[in-house]
Amino acid sequence: MKLIYTHENRLLVELVKSRLEVAGIKTRLKNEYAQGATGELAPNQVWPELWLERDRDLERAQQVLAEAEVEQKNWLCTACGEDNGAAFDFCWQCGRSRPTAD
Fold it and tell me: What is the reported pTM?
């Protein structure tokens, strides 16, 4: 098993778990209930961890996460130059649609 993702926010770990499982990559969540040990252990030692069940899935999992990261970046409108948030599919200033990723 290989560690693929860890974060202090369990919801973010669950989101990554969901993305990977939709892609057919099996995962296992560790430290699910470890936050109760905060204070006895260093904070980052009790963060939820997401592990790949099969080592051979590492490259594909990294690709899925990289694609998800690209999806979450702001984008610049090619028509008016407005900086738009990642959640927008259309420029809020001029209405032009978001350019497709190459």
Answer: 0.62
Query: Sign of the CA dihedral 30, 34, 38, 41?
Result: negative
Nearest to 20 by CA among 5, 9, 35: 5
CA distances from 68 to 8, 24, 38, 46 (A): 19, 15, 30, 25
- Confidence at residue 99, expressed as pLDDT on a 0 to 100 scale: 84
d(CA 37, CA 72): 32
Q: Which residues pair with 75 in a beta bridge?
A: 84
Tell me the per-residue pLDDT of 28-59, one tens digit each, with 9 for 90 and over.
999 876 665 555 666 667 789 999 999 999 99
